[in-house]
Protein backbone atom coordinates (compact mmCIF):
# COMPACT_ATOMS: atom_id res chain seq x y z
CA UNK A 1 0.00 0.00 0.00
CA UNK A 2 1.42 3.36 -0.94
CA UNK A 3 -0.75 5.41 1.47
CA UNK A 4 -1.72 8.15 -1.00
CA UNK A 5 -5.31 8.30 0.14
CA UNK A 6 -5.47 12.05 0.62
CA UNK A 7 -4.56 12.58 -3.04
CA UNK A 8 -7.47 10.54 -4.26
CA UNK A 9 -10.95 12.00 -4.67
CA UNK A 10 -14.28 10.42 -3.76
CA UNK A 11 -15.07 9.76 -7.41
CA UNK A 12 -11.67 8.24 -8.09
CA UNK A 13 -12.11 5.75 -5.26
CA UNK A 14 -15.40 4.39 -6.61
CA UNK A 15 -13.99 4.44 -10.16
CA UNK A 16 -11.02 2.31 -9.10
CA UNK A 17 -13.29 -0.02 -7.13
CA UNK A 18 -15.45 -0.37 -10.26
CA UNK A 19 -12.38 -1.12 -12.40
CA UNK A 20 -11.27 -3.83 -9.98
CA UNK A 21 -14.63 -5.65 -9.99
CA UNK A 22 -15.18 -5.42 -6.23
CA UNK A 23 -18.52 -6.78 -5.01
CA UNK A 24 -19.96 -7.40 -1.54
CA UNK A 25 -18.01 -10.50 -0.54
CA UNK A 26 -20.21 -11.29 2.45
CA UNK A 27 -23.60 -11.30 0.80
CA UNK A 28 -25.26 -11.45 -2.58
CA UNK A 29 -22.48 -9.53 -4.35
CA UNK A 30 -23.87 -6.02 -4.65
CA UNK A 31 -21.37 -4.00 -6.74
CA UNK A 32 -19.29 -2.08 -4.21
CA UNK A 33 -18.61 0.94 -6.47
CA UNK A 34 -22.36 1.67 -6.43
CA UNK A 35 -22.48 1.44 -2.62
CA UNK A 36 -19.49 3.76 -2.35
CA UNK A 37 -21.07 6.32 -4.68
CA UNK A 38 -23.71 7.12 -2.02
CA UNK A 39 -23.32 9.58 0.84
CA UNK A 40 -23.32 8.17 4.38
CA UNK A 41 -22.58 9.19 7.95
CA UNK A 42 -21.06 5.93 9.15
CA UNK A 43 -19.21 3.04 7.52
CA UNK A 44 -19.22 -0.24 9.43
CA UNK A 45 -16.88 -3.16 8.77
CA UNK A 46 -18.91 -6.26 9.42
CA UNK A 47 -16.38 -8.64 10.96
CA UNK A 48 -18.94 -10.54 13.03
CA UNK A 49 -18.58 -13.79 11.08
CA UNK A 50 -21.40 -15.29 13.09
CA UNK A 51 -22.02 -18.46 11.06
CA UNK A 52 -20.73 -21.33 13.21
CA UNK A 53 -17.49 -22.96 11.91
CA UNK A 54 -16.43 -20.18 9.50
CA UNK A 55 -13.13 -18.49 10.34
CA UNK A 56 -12.14 -16.43 7.33
CA UNK A 57 -12.78 -12.79 8.17
CA UNK A 58 -11.41 -12.94 11.71
CA UNK A 59 -8.12 -14.39 10.41
CA UNK A 60 -7.85 -12.02 7.44
CA UNK A 61 -8.49 -9.02 9.68
CA UNK A 62 -5.82 -10.25 12.12
CA UNK A 63 -3.31 -10.77 9.30
CA UNK A 64 -3.99 -7.58 7.34
CA UNK A 65 -5.23 -5.00 9.89
CA UNK A 66 -3.54 -2.10 8.11
CA UNK A 67 -5.07 -3.01 4.74
CA UNK A 68 -8.50 -3.46 6.29
CA UNK A 69 -8.36 -0.11 8.07
CA UNK A 70 -7.16 1.49 4.83
CA UNK A 71 -10.17 -0.05 3.03
CA UNK A 72 -12.44 1.32 5.76
CA UNK A 73 -11.00 4.84 5.56
CA UNK A 74 -11.23 4.77 1.74
CA UNK A 75 -14.89 3.77 2.02
CA UNK A 76 -15.41 6.64 4.48
CA UNK A 77 -13.68 9.02 2.10
CA UNK A 78 -15.78 7.83 -0.84
CA UNK A 79 -19.07 8.17 1.03
CA UNK A 80 -18.16 11.29 3.01
CA UNK A 81 -18.71 9.37 6.26
CA UNK A 82 -17.39 10.99 9.41
CA UNK A 83 -17.30 7.78 11.44
CA UNK A 84 -15.89 4.31 10.87
CA UNK A 85 -16.47 1.22 12.99
CA UNK A 86 -15.14 -2.31 12.95
CA UNK A 87 -17.86 -4.57 14.38
CA UNK A 88 -16.56 -7.84 15.78
CA UNK A 89 -16.77 -10.19 18.72
CA UNK A 90 -14.58 -10.05 21.84
CA UNK A 91 -13.75 -13.72 21.40
CA UNK A 92 -11.67 -12.84 18.30
CA UNK A 93 -8.87 -11.81 20.64
CA UNK A 94 -6.05 -11.91 18.05
CA UNK A 95 -8.11 -9.84 15.63
CA UNK A 96 -8.97 -7.25 18.27
CA UNK A 97 -5.29 -7.02 19.30
CA UNK A 98 -4.13 -6.66 15.69
CA UNK A 99 -6.68 -3.98 14.84
CA UNK A 100 -6.46 -1.86 17.99
CA UNK A 101 -3.23 0.03 17.16
CA UNK A 102 -4.53 0.95 13.69
CA UNK A 103 -7.93 2.03 14.98
CA UNK A 104 -6.35 4.20 17.67
CA UNK A 105 -4.47 6.20 15.05
CA UNK A 106 -7.64 8.03 14.02
CA UNK A 107 -10.15 9.62 16.35
CA UNK A 108 -13.07 8.90 14.02
CA UNK A 109 -12.56 5.13 14.10
CA UNK A 110 -13.69 2.68 16.74
CA UNK A 111 -13.86 -1.01 17.48
CA UNK A 112 -17.44 -2.01 18.26
CA UNK A 113 -17.42 -5.18 20.31
CA UNK A 114 -20.57 -7.26 19.94
CA UNK A 115 -21.90 -10.12 22.07
CA UNK A 116 -21.21 -13.64 20.81
CA UNK A 117 -24.67 -14.14 19.42
CA UNK A 118 -26.28 -15.25 16.19
CA UNK A 119 -27.00 -13.47 13.82
CA UNK A 120 -24.64 -10.62 14.80
CA UNK A 121 -23.49 -10.58 11.17
CA UNK A 122 -26.92 -9.84 9.66
CA UNK A 123 -26.14 -6.24 8.72
CA UNK A 124 -29.44 -4.95 10.10
CA UNK A 125 -28.64 -6.59 13.43
CA UNK A 126 -24.98 -5.49 13.26
CA UNK A 127 -26.12 -1.87 12.93
CA UNK A 128 -28.61 -2.23 15.77
CA UNK A 129 -26.03 -3.85 18.07
CA UNK A 130 -23.30 -1.31 17.32
CA UNK A 131 -25.20 1.97 16.93
CA UNK A 132 -28.64 1.29 18.41
CA UNK A 133 -30.17 2.46 15.12
CA UNK A 134 -32.75 0.39 13.28
CA UNK A 135 -33.04 -0.11 9.53
CA UNK A 136 -36.72 0.07 8.53
CA UNK A 137 -38.32 -3.12 7.20
CA UNK A 138 -37.77 -3.45 3.46
CA UNK A 139 -35.15 -0.69 3.71
CA UNK A 140 -31.36 -0.64 3.40
CA UNK A 141 -28.70 0.63 5.82
CA UNK A 142 -28.26 3.77 3.73
CA UNK A 143 -31.81 4.79 4.73
CA UNK A 144 -30.33 5.56 8.15
CA UNK A 145 -27.01 6.89 6.85
CA UNK A 146 -24.98 3.71 7.25
CA UNK A 147 -22.93 1.65 4.79
CA UNK A 148 -21.87 -1.85 5.83
CA UNK A 149 -19.11 -3.83 4.12
CA UNK A 150 -17.53 -7.09 5.09
CA UNK A 151 -13.82 -7.65 5.77
CA UNK A 152 -12.87 -9.15 2.43
CA UNK A 153 -14.78 -6.46 0.54
CA UNK A 154 -12.84 -3.67 2.23
CA UNK A 155 -9.51 -5.44 1.78
CA UNK A 156 -10.45 -5.62 -1.91
CA UNK A 157 -11.31 -1.90 -1.86
CA UNK A 158 -7.84 -1.07 -0.51
CA UNK A 159 -6.25 -3.27 -3.17
CA UNK A 160 -8.45 -1.80 -5.90
CA UNK A 161 -7.12 1.67 -5.16
CA UNK A 162 -3.64 0.25 -5.71
CA UNK A 163 -4.83 -1.02 -9.10
CA UNK A 164 -5.21 -4.66 -8.05
CA UNK A 165 -8.39 -6.35 -9.34
CA UNK A 166 -10.34 -9.07 -7.51
CA UNK A 167 -8.91 -12.39 -8.67
CA UNK A 168 -8.92 -14.50 -5.52
CA UNK A 169 -11.26 -15.50 -2.73
CA UNK A 170 -10.28 -16.57 0.78
CA UNK A 171 -12.61 -19.08 2.40
CA UNK A 172 -12.82 -21.62 5.20
CA UNK A 173 -13.14 -25.28 4.20
CA UNK A 174 -14.28 -27.22 7.24
CA UNK A 175 -16.69 -29.69 8.85
CA UNK A 176 -16.11 -33.40 8.36
CA UNK A 177 -12.97 -32.90 6.26
CA UNK A 178 -9.57 -34.32 7.23
CA UNK A 179 -7.78 -30.97 7.49
CA UNK A 180 -9.99 -27.95 8.11
CA UNK A 181 -8.24 -25.00 6.52
CA UNK A 182 -8.75 -21.42 5.41
CA UNK A 183 -7.37 -21.01 1.91
CA UNK A 184 -7.00 -18.45 -0.84
CA UNK A 185 -7.89 -19.71 -4.30
CA UNK A 186 -8.24 -18.05 -7.70
CA UNK A 187 -11.87 -17.22 -8.44
CA UNK A 188 -13.25 -19.90 -10.73
CA UNK A 189 -11.45 -22.78 -8.98
CA UNK A 190 -13.70 -25.84 -8.78
CA UNK A 191 -15.27 -26.61 -5.42
CA UNK A 192 -13.96 -30.20 -5.70
CA UNK A 193 -10.39 -28.85 -5.99
CA UNK A 194 -10.91 -26.69 -2.90
CA UNK A 195 -12.15 -29.68 -0.88
CA UNK A 196 -9.03 -31.58 -2.03
CA UNK A 197 -6.97 -28.94 -0.22
CA UNK A 198 -8.77 -29.93 2.99
CA UNK A 199 -8.31 -33.66 2.52
CA UNK A 200 -10.64 -34.68 -0.30
CA UNK A 201 -14.27 -35.59 -0.86
CA UNK A 202 -16.18 -38.73 0.14
CA UNK A 203 -19.40 -40.44 -0.84
CA UNK A 204 -20.41 -40.49 2.81
CA UNK A 205 -20.52 -36.71 2.96
CA UNK A 206 -22.74 -33.93 1.69
CA UNK A 207 -21.51 -30.40 1.09
CA UNK A 208 -22.72 -26.92 1.93
CA UNK A 209 -21.79 -23.71 0.13
CA UNK A 210 -21.71 -21.02 2.84
CA UNK A 211 -22.31 -21.34 6.56
CA UNK A 212 -24.34 -24.04 8.31
CA UNK A 213 -27.27 -21.69 8.90
CA UNK A 214 -27.58 -19.81 5.62
CA UNK A 215 -25.56 -21.94 3.22
CA UNK A 216 -27.05 -24.02 0.43
CA UNK A 217 -26.52 -27.66 -0.47
CA UNK A 218 -23.94 -28.21 -3.18
CA UNK A 219 -25.34 -30.42 -5.90
CA UNK A 220 -22.37 -30.21 -8.27
CA UNK A 221 -18.80 -30.27 -6.95
CA UNK A 222 -17.51 -29.09 -10.33
CA UNK A 223 -19.22 -25.73 -9.72
CA UNK A 224 -16.73 -22.94 -9.19
CA UNK A 225 -15.78 -20.57 -6.40
CA UNK A 226 -17.11 -17.05 -6.97
CA UNK A 227 -16.40 -13.66 -5.39
CA UNK A 228 -19.18 -14.40 -2.87
CA UNK A 229 -18.39 -18.00 -1.86
CA UNK A 230 -18.45 -17.60 1.90
CA UNK A 231 -17.15 -21.00 2.98
CA UNK A 232 -17.41 -24.71 2.19
CA UNK A 233 -18.59 -27.25 4.74
CA UNK A 234 -18.70 -31.05 4.61
CA UNK A 235 -21.07 -32.98 6.88
CA UNK A 236 -22.25 -36.60 7.05
CA UNK A 237 -25.21 -37.20 4.77
CA UNK A 238 -27.43 -38.09 7.72
CA UNK A 239 -26.61 -34.90 9.66
CA UNK A 240 -29.74 -32.97 10.63
CA UNK A 241 -28.63 -29.88 8.70
CA UNK A 242 -28.22 -31.85 5.49
CA UNK A 243 -31.55 -33.62 6.00
CA UNK A 244 -33.27 -30.30 6.60
CA UNK A 245 -31.74 -28.58 3.59
CA UNK A 246 -32.89 -31.52 1.43
CA UNK A 247 -36.55 -31.15 2.42
CA UNK A 248 -38.88 -29.91 -0.29
CA UNK A 249 -41.14 -26.92 0.28
CA UNK A 250 -44.15 -29.23 -0.20
CA UNK A 251 -42.92 -31.40 2.66
CA UNK A 252 -42.34 -28.37 4.85
CA UNK A 253 -45.83 -27.06 4.13
CA UNK A 254 -47.33 -30.48 4.88
CA UNK A 255 -45.51 -30.64 8.23
CA UNK A 256 -46.49 -27.05 9.02
CA UNK A 257 -50.14 -27.83 8.39
CA UNK A 258 -50.05 -30.95 10.53
CA UNK A 259 -48.02 -29.91 13.54
CA UNK A 260 -47.73 -26.11 13.87
CA UNK A 261 -49.07 -25.40 17.34
CA UNK A 262 -48.88 -21.62 16.93
CA UNK A 263 -46.62 -21.47 19.94
CA UNK A 264 -45.17 -18.16 18.66
CA UNK A 265 -41.54 -19.11 19.49
CA UNK A 266 -40.45 -18.47 15.89
CA UNK A 267 -41.73 -14.90 16.11
CA UNK A 268 -40.40 -14.26 19.62
CA UNK A 269 -36.90 -15.24 18.50
CA UNK A 270 -37.00 -13.74 15.00
CA UNK A 271 -34.22 -11.09 15.05
CA UNK A 272 -36.05 -8.85 12.58
CA UNK A 273 -39.27 -9.04 14.61
CA UNK A 274 -37.37 -8.20 17.81
CA UNK A 275 -36.11 -4.90 16.44
CA UNK A 276 -39.58 -3.76 15.42
CA UNK A 277 -40.19 -5.25 11.98
CA UNK A 278 -43.68 -6.56 11.36
CA UNK A 279 -42.35 -9.94 10.18
CA UNK A 280 -44.07 -12.60 12.32
CA UNK A 281 -43.24 -16.09 11.04
CA UNK A 282 -45.97 -17.81 13.10
CA UNK A 283 -48.60 -15.60 11.44
CA UNK A 284 -47.20 -16.35 8.00
CA UNK A 285 -47.35 -20.08 8.71
CA UNK A 286 -50.95 -19.66 9.90
CA UNK A 287 -51.87 -17.64 6.81
CA UNK A 288 -50.35 -20.24 4.50
CA UNK A 289 -51.90 -23.17 6.39
CA UNK A 290 -55.40 -21.72 6.34
CA UNK A 291 -55.06 -19.73 3.12
CA UNK A 292 -56.29 -16.71 5.04
CA UNK A 293 -54.27 -13.59 4.47
CA UNK A 294 -56.19 -11.12 6.63
CA UNK A 295 -54.00 -8.02 6.64
CA UNK A 296 -52.49 -7.78 3.12
CA UNK A 297 -49.24 -6.44 4.60
CA UNK A 298 -48.80 -9.73 6.44
CA UNK A 299 -47.85 -11.83 3.41
CA UNK A 300 -45.64 -9.12 1.93
CA UNK A 301 -43.68 -8.98 5.22
CA UNK A 302 -42.08 -12.26 4.08
CA UNK A 303 -39.98 -10.01 1.82
CA UNK A 304 -38.25 -8.64 4.92
CA UNK A 305 -37.04 -12.05 6.12
CA UNK A 306 -33.23 -12.14 6.24
CA UNK A 307 -33.21 -15.95 5.91
CA UNK A 308 -31.07 -16.15 9.05
CA UNK A 309 -32.59 -19.54 9.90
CA UNK A 310 -33.24 -18.86 13.61
CA UNK A 311 -36.89 -19.87 13.25
CA UNK A 312 -36.19 -23.25 11.63
CA UNK A 313 -32.92 -24.23 13.29
CA UNK A 314 -33.44 -22.93 16.80
CA UNK A 315 -36.91 -21.71 17.61
CA UNK A 316 -39.42 -24.19 16.28
CA UNK A 317 -39.91 -27.13 18.64
CA UNK A 318 -41.53 -29.33 15.98
CA UNK A 319 -39.16 -28.94 13.05
CA UNK A 320 -41.09 -26.51 10.86
CA UNK A 321 -39.15 -24.13 8.63
CA UNK A 322 -40.87 -20.74 8.42
CA UNK A 323 -37.70 -19.63 6.60
CA UNK A 324 -38.34 -21.94 3.65
CA UNK A 325 -41.98 -20.86 3.52
CA UNK A 326 -40.79 -17.24 3.43
CA UNK A 327 -38.32 -18.00 0.65
CA UNK A 328 -41.15 -19.50 -1.44
CA UNK A 329 -43.42 -16.52 -0.69
CA UNK A 330 -40.63 -14.08 -1.59
CA UNK A 331 -40.14 -15.71 -4.98
CA UNK A 332 -43.86 -15.36 -5.73
CA UNK A 333 -44.08 -11.77 -4.50
CA UNK A 334 -40.96 -10.69 -6.40
CA UNK A 335 -42.24 -12.29 -9.59
CA UNK A 336 -45.32 -10.09 -9.21
CA UNK A 337 -43.19 -7.01 -8.56
CA UNK A 338 -44.69 -6.56 -5.09
CA UNK A 339 -42.76 -4.59 -2.46
CA UNK A 340 -43.21 -4.37 1.31
CA UNK A 341 -44.69 -1.03 2.40
CA UNK A 342 -44.95 -1.37 6.19
CA UNK A 343 -43.48 0.89 8.87
CA UNK A 344 -40.93 0.32 11.59
CA UNK A 345 -42.67 -0.65 14.83
CA UNK A 346 -41.55 -0.76 18.45
CA UNK A 347 -38.47 -2.65 19.51
CA UNK A 348 -39.14 -5.67 21.75
CA UNK A 349 -38.06 -4.52 25.24
CA UNK A 350 -36.77 -8.06 25.83
CA UNK A 351 -34.81 -8.11 22.54
CA UNK A 352 -31.32 -8.11 24.04
CA UNK A 353 -32.30 -11.06 26.26
CA UNK A 354 -33.66 -13.13 23.42
CA UNK A 355 -30.47 -13.14 21.33
CA UNK A 356 -29.08 -16.61 20.75
CA UNK A 357 -25.63 -17.40 22.18
CA UNK A 358 -23.44 -18.93 19.46
CA UNK A 359 -22.39 -21.81 21.72
CA UNK A 360 -26.02 -22.80 22.30
CA UNK A 361 -26.68 -22.63 18.59
CA UNK A 362 -23.67 -24.84 17.92
CA UNK A 363 -25.05 -27.47 20.31
CA UNK A 364 -28.54 -27.24 18.85
CA UNK A 365 -27.13 -27.75 15.36
CA UNK A 366 -24.99 -30.67 16.60
CA UNK A 367 -21.89 -29.06 15.14
CA UNK A 368 -19.64 -29.38 18.18
CA UNK A 369 -17.63 -32.33 16.72
CA UNK A 370 -16.62 -30.14 13.80
CA UNK A 371 -15.80 -26.95 15.68
CA UNK A 372 -12.08 -26.91 14.93
CA UNK A 373 -9.37 -24.48 14.01
CA UNK A 374 -9.14 -23.85 10.28
CA UNK A 375 -5.76 -22.11 10.05
CA UNK A 376 -5.20 -19.59 7.29
CA UNK A 377 -2.69 -20.78 4.71
CA UNK A 378 -0.60 -18.02 3.15
CA UNK A 379 -0.15 -19.90 -0.12
CA UNK A 380 -2.45 -19.17 -3.02
CA UNK A 381 -3.59 -22.40 -4.67
CA UNK A 382 -2.77 -22.72 -8.39
CA UNK A 383 -5.39 -24.70 -10.30
CA UNK A 384 -4.86 -25.87 -13.91
CA UNK A 385 -8.21 -24.45 -14.95
CA UNK A 386 -10.73 -21.87 -13.76
CA UNK A 387 -14.31 -21.33 -14.78
CA UNK A 388 -15.22 -17.70 -14.12
CA UNK A 389 -18.92 -16.96 -13.92
CA UNK A 390 -20.04 -13.85 -15.74
CA UNK A 391 -22.57 -13.13 -13.01
CA UNK A 392 -21.05 -13.28 -9.55
CA UNK A 393 -22.93 -10.19 -8.44
CA UNK A 394 -26.31 -8.49 -8.33
CA UNK A 395 -27.14 -6.92 -11.69
CA UNK A 396 -26.52 -7.83 -15.31
CA UNK A 397 -24.00 -10.53 -16.26
CA UNK A 398 -20.65 -9.25 -17.51
CA UNK A 399 -20.07 -9.28 -21.27
CA UNK A 400 -16.99 -11.22 -22.47
CA UNK A 401 -14.26 -9.04 -23.97
CA UNK A 402 -11.99 -11.96 -24.89
CA UNK A 403 -12.43 -14.82 -27.36
CA UNK A 404 -11.57 -18.51 -27.35
CA UNK A 405 -7.85 -18.93 -27.98
CA UNK A 406 -6.84 -15.62 -26.40
CA UNK A 407 -3.88 -15.82 -24.05
CA UNK A 408 -4.63 -13.89 -20.87
CA UNK A 409 -2.76 -12.79 -17.77
CA UNK A 410 -4.10 -12.97 -14.22
CA UNK A 411 -5.80 -9.64 -13.51
CA UNK A 412 -6.65 -8.94 -17.16
CA UNK A 413 -10.21 -7.78 -17.82
CA UNK A 414 -12.26 -10.56 -19.45
CA UNK A 415 -15.85 -9.46 -18.69
CA UNK A 416 -17.16 -5.88 -18.95
CA UNK A 417 -20.24 -4.28 -17.35
CA UNK A 418 -22.92 -3.90 -20.05
CA UNK A 419 -23.48 -0.25 -20.99
CA UNK A 420 -25.84 1.52 -18.60
CA UNK A 421 -26.39 -1.57 -16.44
CA UNK A 422 -25.72 -2.37 -12.80
CA UNK A 423 -22.94 -4.94 -12.70
CA UNK A 424 -19.33 -5.79 -11.96
CA UNK A 425 -16.26 -6.46 -14.09
CA UNK A 426 -14.68 -9.91 -14.21
CA UNK A 427 -10.93 -10.48 -14.48
CA UNK A 428 -8.81 -13.50 -15.37
CA UNK A 429 -7.68 -15.22 -12.17
CA UNK A 430 -4.80 -17.25 -13.64
CA UNK A 431 -2.40 -16.89 -16.58
CA UNK A 432 -3.56 -19.10 -19.43
CA UNK A 433 -5.62 -19.53 -22.56
CA UNK A 434 -9.35 -18.96 -22.92
CA UNK A 435 -10.72 -22.39 -23.86
CA UNK A 436 -14.46 -21.85 -23.67
CA UNK A 437 -17.00 -19.04 -23.46
CA UNK A 438 -20.65 -19.73 -22.70
CA UNK A 439 -23.43 -17.27 -21.77
CA UNK A 440 -22.66 -18.17 -18.15
CA UNK A 441 -18.87 -18.38 -17.86
CA UNK A 442 -15.39 -18.06 -19.31
CA UNK A 443 -12.99 -20.99 -18.92
CA UNK A 444 -9.25 -20.37 -18.77
CA UNK A 445 -6.70 -23.19 -18.86
CA UNK A 446 -3.12 -22.81 -17.69
CA UNK A 447 -0.63 -22.58 -20.53
CA UNK A 448 -0.20 -20.71 -23.79
CA UNK A 449 2.40 -18.14 -24.76
CA UNK A 450 1.92 -14.59 -23.55
CA UNK A 451 1.20 -12.04 -26.25
S1 LIG B 1 -35.35 -16.76 8.81
FE1 LIG B 1 -36.94 -16.84 10.36
S2 LIG B 1 -36.01 -15.93 12.16
FE2 LIG B 1 -34.74 -15.31 10.41
S3 LIG B 1 -35.57 -13.34 9.75
FE3 LIG B 1 -36.63 -14.93 8.56
S4 LIG B 1 -38.49 -15.35 9.73
FE4 LIG B 1 -37.10 -14.28 11.11
S1 LIG C 1 -42.28 -22.17 16.32
FE1 LIG C 1 -43.00 -23.82 14.95
S2 LIG C 1 -44.80 -24.60 15.96
FE2 LIG C 1 -44.39 -22.63 16.92
S3 LIG C 1 -45.61 -21.15 15.73
FE3 LIG C 1 -43.58 -21.21 14.79
S4 LIG C 1 -43.76 -22.72 13.16
FE4 LIG C 1 -45.51 -23.06 14.53
UniProtKB/TrEMBL annotation:
<dbReference type="InterPro" id="IPR009051">
    <property type="entry name" value="Helical_ferredxn"/>
</dbReference>
<feature type="domain" description="4Fe-4S ferredoxin-type">
    <location>
        <begin position="295"/>
        <end position="326"/>
    </location>
</feature>
<keyword id="KW-0411">Iron-sulfur</keyword>
<dbReference type="InterPro" id="IPR017054">
    <property type="entry name" value="PduS"/>
</dbReference>
<dbReference type="InterPro" id="IPR011538">
    <property type="entry name" value="Nuo51_FMN-bd"/>
</dbReference>
<keyword id="KW-0479">Metal-binding</keyword>
<keyword id="KW-0004">4Fe-4S</keyword>
<dbReference type="InterPro" id="IPR017896">
    <property type="entry name" value="4Fe4S_Fe-S-bd"/>
</dbReference>
<keyword id="KW-0249">Electron transport</keyword>
<protein>
    <submittedName>
        <fullName>SLBB domain-containing protein</fullName>
    </submittedName>
</protein>
<dbReference type="InterPro" id="IPR017900">
    <property type="entry name" value="4Fe4S_Fe_S_CS"/>
</dbReference>
<dbReference type="Pfam" id="PF13375">
    <property type="entry name" value="RnfC_N"/>
</dbReference>
<dbReference type="InterPro" id="IPR019554">
    <property type="entry name" value="Soluble_ligand-bd"/>
</dbReference>
<dbReference type="InterPro" id="IPR010208">
    <property type="entry name" value="Ion_transpt_RnfC/RsxC"/>
</dbReference>
<keyword id="KW-0677">Repeat</keyword>
<dbReference type="Pfam" id="PF13534">
    <property type="entry name" value="Fer4_17"/>
</dbReference>
<dbReference type="InterPro" id="IPR026902">
    <property type="entry name" value="RnfC_N"/>
</dbReference>
<dbReference type="Pfam" id="PF10531">
    <property type="entry name" value="SLBB"/>
</dbReference>
<keyword id="KW-0408">Iron</keyword>
<dbReference type="Pfam" id="PF01512">
    <property type="entry name" value="Complex1_51K"/>
</dbReference>
<keyword id="KW-0813">Transport</keyword>
<dbReference type="InterPro" id="IPR037225">
    <property type="entry name" value="Nuo51_FMN-bd_sf"/>
</dbReference>
<feature type="domain" description="4Fe-4S ferredoxin-type">
    <location>
        <begin position="251"/>
        <end position="280"/>
    </location>
</feature>
Amino acid sequence: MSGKMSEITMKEISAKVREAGVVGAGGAGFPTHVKLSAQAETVIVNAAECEPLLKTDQQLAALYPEVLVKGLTLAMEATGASKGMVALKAKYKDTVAALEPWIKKRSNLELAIMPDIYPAGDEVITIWLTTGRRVPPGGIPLNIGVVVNNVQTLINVARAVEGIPVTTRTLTVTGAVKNPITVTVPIGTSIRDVFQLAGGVSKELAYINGGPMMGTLITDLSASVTKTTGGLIALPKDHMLIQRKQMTVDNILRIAKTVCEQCNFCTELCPRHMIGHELSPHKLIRAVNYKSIGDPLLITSALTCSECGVCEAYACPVGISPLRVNVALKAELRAQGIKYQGELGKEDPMAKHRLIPSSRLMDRLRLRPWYKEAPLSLEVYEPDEVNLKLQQHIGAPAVPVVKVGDVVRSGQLIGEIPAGALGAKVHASIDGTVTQITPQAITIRKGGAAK
